[in-house]
Write a structure and sequence with these properties.
- The protein is an alpha/beta fold and about 270 residues long.
- The chain has a single domain, classed as Alpha-Beta Barrel (TIM Barrel).
- The protein has eleven helices and ten strands.
- The strands form two sheets. Strands 3-4-5-6-7-8-9-10 form an eight-stranded parallel sheet. Strands 1-2 form a two-stranded antiparallel sheet.
- Helix 3 packs across helix 5 and helix 9 packs across helix 10.
- The structure holds NADP nicotinamide-adenine-dinucleotide phosphate.
- NADP nicotinamide-adenine-dinucleotide phosphate (NAP) binds next to helix 8 and helix 10.
- GO terms for molecular function: oxidoreductase activity.
- InterPro entries: AKR (IPR020471), AKR2_Oxidoreductase (IPR053135), NAD(P)_OxRdtase_dom_sf (IPR036812), NADP_OxRdtase_dom (IPR023210).
- Pfam families: Aldo_ket_red.
Length: about 270
């Protein structure tokens, strides 16, 4: 078995649909083992950011052991001006040990003010475009927690990829994901399991035999049922999580609308 692949938007290549969100991975005694388990299992998309403490450093040190690894690295900058974004890009390249970072994203552009800043003359988007021209990054993306900003970003034509939250806990992104895919953007889904607080509660319920349909495997299945999704990036700090998520994705069958509604209801009732 291998992880199914999907097109990365209109970029002209495919990637395994299961990636790794490496935001919290460094905060674990099994951090390096987790990254190695992901690479060994065929995960190719790994998401990090300048602002994820220790994450680029962790990835850089594991990837230096494996210079031939075929990995698609995505990082991000919170900086809002061209010059400071360029500075972040060069720090990422140095720490990750890469001449070129495959995808560089404007991080958490979630207010109209932040959107105006990054798009202004001298703003961060300009810095990312210059970085493409000098071969420092390959593709430009954006991450946002605002569906309003997401629509502006999609319609701007400036981005090859967009990262959005989508899950049974947060189904309202669906039309925006579909719009992004229609416009040829790659759609990267963050927080597909609802985030670490909820998953910890879910793990407790599973241990007590009380989970019902609300399992990590079903939450991943829910997200992948949307064909607009290019890559899903559950966070993980332990190799066992990677193995469980691989198993879930390899066994993927789309959910029926009734199953999706049932999971949304179970998600909404998690803390009842
Ligand atoms: N751009 C942004 O503004 C932004 C914001 C948030 C997140 N993100 C990206 O999205 C990624 C994922 O988000 P997230 O980590 O917040 O939320 P998430 O992926 O929904 O949930 C992560 C949690 O799920 C647990 N988990 C993963 N697989 C599991 C399994 N098979 N069984 C049981 N538990 C499992 C992890 O546990 P352990 O940690 O204990 O292994 C972790 O606590 C981040 O790493 C980051 O790359 C981006």
């Amino acid at each position: 078995m291998s992880i199914p692949t999907r097109p990365f938007g209109a970029a002209g290549f495919e990637l395994p649909v299961l990636g790794l969100g490496a935001m919290d991975t460094p905060h674990s005694p099994e951090a390096e083992a987790t990254v190695r388990a992901a690479l060994d299992a065929g995960i190719r998309f790994i998401d990090t950011a300048r602002d994820y403490e220790g994450s680029e450093y962790l990835l850089g040190s594991v990837l230096r052991e494996r210079p031939a690894a075929d990995v698609f690295l995505a990082s991000k900058t919170f900086r809002r001006t061209a010059a400071s974004a360029q500075y972040d890009i060069d720090r990422s390249r140095q720490v990750l040990g890469r001449e070129t970072v495959d995808l560089y994203q404007l991080h958490d552009v979630s207010t109209p003010e932040a959107w105006a800043q990054v798009m202004a003359p001298g703003g961060a988007l300009e810095g990312l475009r210059d970085a493409v021209d000098r071969g420092a990054i390959r593709h430009i993306g954006i991450s946002t927690h605002s569906l309003e900003v997401a629509r502006l970003a999609i319609d701007s034509g400036a981005f090859a990829a967009i990262m959005l939250e989508y899950s049974a806990f947060y189904p309202e992104s669906l039309p925006v994901l579909e719009h992004a895919a229609d416009r040829g953007l790659a759609v990267i889904v963050m927080r597909p399991l609802g985030g670490s607080g909820r998953t910890s509660t879910i793990r407790g319920r599973i241990a007590r035999g009380e989970a019902g349909p609300l399992t990590p495997a079903n939450l991943l299945r829910y997200v992948l049922t949307c064909p607009a999704v290019s890559v899903v990036i559950p966070g993980a700090r332990y190799p066992d999580r990677i193995r469980a998520n691989i198993e879930a994705v390899e066994a993927f069958v789309p959910m029926s609308p009734a199953e999706m509604r049932e999971l949304e209801q179970a998600a909404a009732a998690l803390y009842d």
